[in-house]
Design brief:
heterotrimer, A alpha+beta, B alpha+beta, C alpha/beta, B: alpha+beta, Arc Repressor Mutant, subunit A, 3 domains, 15 helices, C: alpha/beta, Amidase signature (AS) enzymes, eleven-stranded mixed β-sheet, protein biosynthesis (chain C), Amidase_dom (chain C), transferase activity (chain C)
């Protein structure tokens, strides 16, 4: 499937990237080219191959249920672009 | 007991599947060591992981995994020995990572089933599709400022179980019964406190309509923000009517997320969620598949408490209780425990009567829980014991009970102090009866000439004279003998 | 002073111990070079005050006879490692003036072992790139120049280009890197130094800003193999805060450098003989084989049949993970915020303004391949290929102990040379990406110069968790190659 500007516009929307028309025009052929290139994987028959998500062959370690972190509101807010009364502040969300 | 919505053009059936989010009762969060307690200062129970600071990584809480397994077993469900955490990608200010770590294709718990109890005495099975673990989001406050929303991440990362039912629920009553039963099971298991006010249990209702007799499911809407069992019932009533109206007017139902507005008593479309959902799930590369050891599942299974339905059936068979009494007793684990403790070595049916008709009524009136009862289980048992061995009569017992509730003293002490012990000595009973008969010679005559109804009058007089302390059946026997002689 | 900056870490530790110079002097010497080589743009943030303070602390330890494994050693820290109280940027505008309130596990371990951090080194934005030309803080310039007198500025490789340039230019003795598809090995080759990416799971990723989590792995650059072994020891080990970090014992890597490769089987994958590879690269590869053969190793022909699919596999998996990993940069809790009319507008504007072209491109690709309807065709397909590539290596290691390949298909190129076409740029990683997908350790050692006087590297790949053999073979090649070339500017300064 070939990628056009509208697909890139939709994807940019999903990724919350406000791209200008000229950005979209610039990125579309690049993204299309790369996606077309990766489609060469279609040559390989992978019918009986299980997907591999991670190469580390160890069991997932679990931690005990102990309160060992948090309690530093100041550090959490230290880099906030906007905060008030201990909260992060963002433009109003309308439901 | 399917509820039918009568439309202009015919009858409609309500089809509901529920998604319940139950907060796991753990000390710390699903993937971080920050505390989970409710009501703390904003952003004070937040770790760098919960705030999704750059480079932070999740580490899974062992206890939460055990609680999910425990819940799965309590729902009679399949435990999946391998499950996978995936990322559900979307943007929202109270979702710091830009994705929620959840389970999608491989949940920890698969299919199960619970039974719900309906008001007509029937029992209906509701199938569970799955249970998976996921992170909760933070909270956005929209009403603190005219142009800003405030974000508190204290809840961010708290462990949730999402319990998804099959669309087996056929109306508001069944939905309420399902939620009550689910909550009861979670509380028995101790895996979730089931507190809907504090949001530790939240329900989303997936509702569609179809004509009675139709097998195909209709298009459903997901109703969010239903924060109590009552709200669930009201939302279902509203939404089912709305859908019928749309359908009967030739419209189609759009699959969408709708918000329950408790103030207006209506559901409305959530515009913000309307944009195409594309969550782009994929396995979280920061975590590995969760592989359970069979021994762990076995250990949890062995430690499961008796569940509500098991307890109910046992109460019926072991104590000879009726289904209704048994179901009221088991509704709360603490209540059932109280009953069993009180009933130990006593007449269990009598204990159940006293607990259900007297103690619970009084506690309810005073707004107290069973844990706060001034009458302990042992004391209630003792009271019933005094009745059973004829130390006091049932009538006296009521006074003693009131005294116990007010003073917290035990029954024997009150009986002793007030000299309420029942008289069973026939000599003493005969003496009182003789006195009463002597004082009412005219009535004795009437009785003997056929006015049988006066028997009750004599009993009353005898009991009154003795202050209710005479054994009623002995009074009956002796009185009858004397009157007839 | 220049002598102080021209020694290895092993020599410096010896010198400090014998009190031939102080840690403060060693640090000052490197700070001086750091200042003199600012035109390379190798550092985004310099921290000389903290460095001197740490050096003085080191001197106290040395005096007390209490030397730690990296006592007083001046290093550079890739600006992808979060450092407590020191601005960390990932070379991106989106992080703005982000100052972490925490220390990454790896930098923390190095500090605990006595290392002196001189500053945060430049990189490709979010480690996405092979030339260090995508940094929001400007290109890094390689200290190397072509011998033809053209004076063109060359790339140091990427993404850890600031680290490789700094180690090569002598403004630090070692520098951390991260390697997702070759980001340590390729810049090491371009800058004529040694660099190792250990087995995935060997070093904790906690506190390292994520690019592609299933591939990212911290590692180290130094001027020789032994120094890499010394520093990697400090960086390695299980971290309960990283679920993908393995609980494996960390060997004394430096002890593996026996100089003996007798009987070792060295695999030569035929698929790495790619079409159009420069003759000089083929020649240096052959030299490597010859050295090893002379040392008693056995050269074995092997096949890694799915090699040609490694790059497209990587360019699905890495962007997919990156698109999700970078979702947290939303202008809410830290970093750049550009005000908008509403929340979504704020998100879109902040992210568009904060991310550069390469990052934006990869987020677009990653979002696309994960989106509904394409997930199976791209992402799942890539994961299946990843298994085949992984199994290629497992099968190959039945026949050999290590694999020898060139590190990169060319020497360093000029800045701007490959900019027109992202695909052409991606081909730089053709030899390094397969090992990243398999999670195996890989090291690049300088093996010679090309006709233009630029360094060429050989890559040594090992079995999972077998960094020791990788170090042993790398050290052997390093000795055999007797590579002693340094950049002109270093020579001039000396």
């Amino acid at each position: 499937m070939s990628i056009d500007k509208e697909i890139v516009r939709k994807v940019a929307g999903l990724a919350r990237l406000s791209l200008s028309e000229s950005d979209l025009e610039r990125f579309t052929p690049q993204v299309a080219g790369i996606v077309k290139w990766v489609e060469m994987l279609g040559e390989v028959n992978t019918e009986n191959v299980a997907p591999l998500a991670n190469v580390v062959n160890v069991d997932l370690k679990l931690r005990p249920d102990i309160i060992s972190d948090g309690g530093y509101q100041d550090k959490i807010l230290a880099n906030a672009p906007e905060s008030m009364e201990g909260f992060f502040v963002v433009p109003k969300v309308v439901e | 007991m399917a509820e039918i919505v009568k439309g202009e053009t015919g009858d409609w059936e309500i089809v509901i599947g529920m998604e319940v989010h139950a907060q796991i009762t753990s000390q710390s969060k699903l993937f971080s060591g920050a505390a989970t307690a409710f009501g703390a200062e904003p952003n004070s129970q937040v770790s760098f992981v919960d705030a999704a600071m750059p480079g932070m990584l999740p580490v899974l809480n062992q206890y939460c995994v055990e609680q999910a397994i425990r819940t799965g077993l309590g729902l009679n469900a399949q435990i999946n020995m391998t499950s996978v955490f995936e990322r559900k990608n979307y943007f929202y200010p109270d979702l710091p990572q830009g994705y929620q770590i959840s389970q999608f294709q491989h949940p920890i718990v698969g299919e199960g089933e619970i039974e719900i109890d309906l008001s007509d005495g029937t029992v209906k099975p509701i199938r569970i599709e799955r249970l998976h673990m996921e992170q909760d989001a933070g909270k956005s406050l929209h009403d603190q400022h005219p142009t800003k929303s405030f974000v508190d991440l204290n809840r961010s990362g708290t462990a949730l179980m999402e319990i998804v039912s099959r669309p087996d629920i056929r109306g508001a009553e069944e939905a309420a019964a399902y939620l009550s039963k689910l909550r009861m099971i979670l509380r028995y298991l101790g895996t979730c406190d089931g507190n809907m006010d504090e949001g530790s249990m939240r329900a989303d209702v997936n509702l569609s309509m179809r004509r009675v007799g139709e097998e195909k499911l209709g298009t459903r809407c997901e109703i969010k923000n239903v924060n109590s069992i009552k709200a669930v019932q009201m939302a279902i009533a509203y939404e089912s009517r709305r859908q019928v109206e749309v359908l009967e007017n030739g419209g189609t139902i759009k699959q969408e997320t709708r918000l329950w507005d408790p103030a207006k008593g209506e559901t409305r479309s959530m515009r913000s969620k309307e944009e195409a959902h594309d969550y782009r799930y994929f396995p979280d590369p920061d975590l590995l598949p969760l592989v359970l050891q069979p021994q762990l599942v076995e250990k949890i299974e062995a430690s499961l408490p008796e569940l509500p339905d098991q307890k109910k059936h046992r109460f019926m068979s072991e104590f000879g209780l009726g289904a209704y009494d048994a179901s009221v007793l088991i509704a709360e684990r603490s209540r059932a425990d109280f009953f069993e403790q009180a009933a130990k070595g006593r007449n269990a049916k009598l204990v159940a009567n006293w607990l259900l008709n007297e103690l619970l009524a009084l506690l309810n009136k005073e707004g107290k829980s069973i844990a706060e009862s001034p009458i302990s289980a042992a004391h209630l048992g003792q009271l019933v014991g005094l009745i059973s061995d004829n130390t006091i009569s049932g009538k006296i017992a009521k006074d003693v009970f009131a005294d116990m509730f007010a003073s917290g003293k035990d029954a024997s002490q009150i009986v002793e102090e007030k000299g309420l012990k029942q008289v069973t000595d026939t000599g003493a009973i005969e003496k009182t009866i003789d006195e009463v008969l002597a004082e009412n010679a005219d009535k004795v005559g009437e009785f003997r000439s056929g006015k049988d109804k006066l028997f009750g009058f004599f009993v009353g007089q005898v009991m009154k004279k003795s202050g209710g302390k005479l054994n009623p059946s002995a009074v009956n026997d002796i009185l009858m003998a004397k009157l007839k002689s | 002073m220049t002598e102080l900056t021209n020694q290895t870490i092993a020599q410096a530790l010896e010198g400090l111990k014998k009190k031939q110079f102080s840690a403060k002097e060693l640090t000052e010497a490197h700070i001086k070079v750091m200042e003199e080589t600012r035109h390379l743009n190798a550092y985004i943030t310099e921290t000389p005050e903290q460095a001197l303070e740490a050096a003085q602390e080191s001197d106290k330890k040395i005096t007390a006879g209490d030397m730690r494994p990296l006592e007083g050693i001046p290093i550079g820290m890739k600006d992808l490692f979060c450092t407590k109280g020191v601005r960390t940027t990932a070379a991106s505008k989106i992080l703005g003036n982000f100052v972490p309130q925490y220390e990454s596990t790896v930098s923390g371990k190095m500090l605990a072992d006595g290392a002196v951090i001189l500053g945060k080194t430049n990189l490709d934005e979010f480690a996405m790139g092979s030339s260090n030309t995508t940094s929001a803080f400007g290109n890094v310039i390689s200290p190397w120049k072509r011998s033809d007198g053209s004076n063109a500025d060359l790339v140091p490789g990427g993404s850890s280009g600031g680290s490789s340039a700094a180690v090569s230019a002598r403004s630090c003795m070692a520098a951390t890197g991260t390697d997702t598809g070759g980001s340590i090995r390729q810049p090491a080759a371009f800058c004529g130094i040694a660099g190792i990416k250990p087995t995935y799971g060997r070093c904790s990723r906690w506190g390292v800003i994520a690019f592609a989590s299933s591939l990212d792995q911290p590692g180290i650059f130094a001027r020789d193999v032994k120094d890499c072994a010394i520093v990697l020891k400090s960086m390695s080990g299980h971290d309960p805060k990283d679920s993908t970090s393995a609980n494996k014992p960390v060997p004394e890597f430096a002890a593996a450098l026996t100089g003996n490769v007798k009987g070792l089987k060295v695999g030569i994958p035929k698929e790495y003989n790619v079409e159009g590879m420069p003759a000089e690269i083929t020649a240096i590869w052959q030299k490597g084989m010859d050295w090893l053969k002379t040392g008693g190793a056995e050269i074995v022909d092997i096949s890694l049949p799915h090699t040609k699919y490694a790059l497209p596999t990587y360019y699905i998996i890495a962007p997919a993970e990156c698109s999700s990993n970078l979702a947290r940069y939303d202008g809410v809790r830290y970093g750049l915020r550009v005000d908008g009319e509403n929340l979504n507008d704020m998100y879109g504007k902040s992210r568009a303004a904060g991310f550069g072209n390469e990052v934006t491109r990869r987020i677009l690709i990653g979002t696309y391949v994960l989106s509904s309807g394409y997930y199976d065709a791209y992402y799942i397909k890539a994961q299946k290929l990843r298994r085949l590539i992984y199994e290629d290596f497992i099968n190959a290691y039945q026949k050999c102990d290590v694999i020898l390949t060139p590190t990169a298909p060319s020497a360093a190129f000029a800045i701007g040379e490959n900019d027109d076409d992202p695909l052409k740029m991606y081909l730089n990683d053709v030899f390094t990406v397969p090992a990243s997908l398999a999670g195996i350790p890989g090291m690049s050692v300088p093996a010679g110069l090309d006709a233009q006087g630029l360094p060429l590297g050989l890559q040594i790949l090992g079995r999972h968790w077998d960094e020791e053999t990788v170090f042993r073979v790398s050290d052997f090649i390093e000795t055999a190659a007797a590579f002693d070339a340094v950049p002109q500017m270093v020579k001039k300064a000396a």
